[in-house]
Amino acid sequence: MTDKERNNGFELYKAFSEADSRFVDEMLDDDLAENIRAANKRRRIRLYSTFAAAAAVVVIAVGLSVFPRESIGKSETAKENIAFGENSRGNMGAGENADGDALYAPEAETAEDAPMNIAPPTTTAAETDNAPKTQEMFDGEEQPAEEKAAELPSSAAESSSSKDGFDYTGKSSHKGAAVSPVPSDDVPYEETPPDDIDLPDLSSVDDSSESGGAEDSAPEVDAETVALSDNVVFALAEEVSNNHRGRLLAEGDGFTLYSFDNCDPEAIVTVERDGVYRAALRVGALPDTLEELAEALDLKRYLRCEGIEGSDTRLTDEQFRNEVLSDLLADGDKLTLTDSKPAGEGITCLCRLGTDRETYADGIRLTVFEDGSVYFTALGMSGSYTHEE
Amino acid sequence: MAITEDSEIIALYFSRDQRAITETDTKYGTLCRTISQRIVCDSRDAEECVSDTYMRAWNTIPPQKPDSLGAFLGRIVRNISLDCFRRKSAQKRKGDDIPFEELSECLPARDNSAENALNSAVADSLNEFLASLPQEQRVYFMRRYYMGEPLNLIAERYGVSANKLGVMMHRLRKKFRQKLIKDGVCTEGGGIV
């Protein structure tokens, strides 16, 4: 008897001969195989869609919750100055080489001078290396808007690459000029509020820059708000494309409230007014740290993965691709790991997800921590999410 | 015209009609050859095993009347092929893709005296384990360890990535090992009880 035969794996393999016949039939069933194949395809599409939407939400939420509070001030004018550029309205973000850490561009930016680019990341290399777990990782030293504008057009890529240590120059498929928002007519949505929506009735809309219609007990609000009768306040954020509009939630006087993509309407909604769509974040529901934010938005399942627990765990690129990303995204083959490096308590990876038609994120940076959590940042949103099977 | 229903083929066996062999080969020949080929890694040996399988089926039906002819033939051809493999020198095998080694982590090596320890308890544990799995995972697991199918072929058939399958197989083997330990088939240290 050879060593291989003496190996119990051989005997266990032989034991499979005694497997119940129904399991064998199941294994040979071509119809079942077709069903599983179709289910896997649907699952993959759903994950890609959700991941892309999640990335968009994180970009918006981080931008809204971090920068305005600390660097911009509370006036409406100041807020307008740091809004997304005109061309990002339909695209939910910026173009090539833009970093998700720095989402703001001066309002003066136009389609001609900087079609999709946004300000270069303000995060320093040291900050990136340390990969802080909180919003600090997205919150660099503030920079006057004029300085940001001066750096914008051609130096964004270099600045972005050099500051965070990644080389973005290989990403050439997402060009600002190629962005073409999905026409709203293509999106079939409900036209009347469904009966089963839990949101309370709209009572008032306050467009002031103060805390709006919120009661004393409501959180303080610095921006325009939409207040609901039960003190639920949504702070209006930047304009978004209406292709992020979800189901109809409620109609008010001169405005309409929709959900935002597939996100929890308790955390983020889309407000349409005079044909303009704006994201609106639930005041008080969006915490300061990204991890809490992800929990608030019910994204945790997409940010958690198994297999990397343990204080001494360090994953190689291959392990990361095989054991983390394949779980995270169901189909790791579609995700290209373009760079990775140790970062503080974890490992930071720069990835490309899918093809141009499968996600509107140019790239995704994930920082995996030893406790199993994964933070991601969408890099350079290309905007045209036109999934085709 | 080929018979497609198992019951009709089995009826031919019962009537001792030699067309039973032909119809069996038409419907299950490819499956049997595939299983055997993956074990013995030699087309001539595989063909011989398949012929022996048909012979054994002819001799055992009747009195046996299998519910599933595919599972019945699969069991026979696996056993015959594994016996054939055992007869041949393992060193002569060209392919090493039979996943014995992978399963060995579930039940570590032991000495010859315990060779008969693979008894119905193991089969029971296996069937309980398979029954506990979600259907999708069970199918993957069976394709891998019953059919001996490479991961890339399984991935292609079910539209899932080979990477994901590899990770899943690793986890399922760990679960299977835990099941065997829990059922007392082997100990935590690796010895068979």
Summarize, please.
With 389 residues, chain A is α+β, with helices and mostly antiparallel strands. Helices cover 31% and strands 20% of the residues of chain A.
Describe this structure in words.
The complex is a heterodimer of chains A (389) and B (193). Chain A is of the alpha+beta class. Chain A folds into two domains: 45-181 and 288-381, no CATH class; 185-282, Beta Complex (Metal Binding Protein, Guanine Nucleotide Exchange Factor, Chain A). In chain A, 31% of the residues lie in helices and 20% in strands. Chain A contains ten helices and eleven strands. Chain A has helices at residues 3-6, 8-15, 21-28, 30-72, 76-81, 125-130, 145-164, 290-296, 300-303, 317-329, and strands spanning 202-206, 225-228, 233-239, 245-251, 255-260, 268-273, 276-282, 335-343, 346-353, 361-369, 374-381. Chain A has a seven-stranded antiparallel beta sheet, covered by helices on one side. In chain A, strands 8-9-10-11 form a four-stranded antiparallel beta sheet. Residues 1-6, 68-222, 287-291, 296-315, 326-334, 354-363 and 378-389 of chain A have low confidence and may be disordered. Chain B is mainly alpha-helical and 193 residues long. Chain B folds into two domains: 6-90, Orthogonal Bundle (Rna Polymerase Sigma Factor, Chain: A), CATH 1.10.1740.10; 100-182, Arc Repressor Mutant, subunit A, CATH 1.10.10.10. Chain B has nine helices and no strands. Chain B has helices spanning 6-14, 19-40, 43-60, 69-87, 100-104, 120-132, 135-145, 151-158, 162-182. In chain B, helix 2 (19-40) crosses helix 3 (43-60) and helix 2 packs across helix 4 (69-87). The chains are: A alpha+beta (389), B mainly alpha (193).
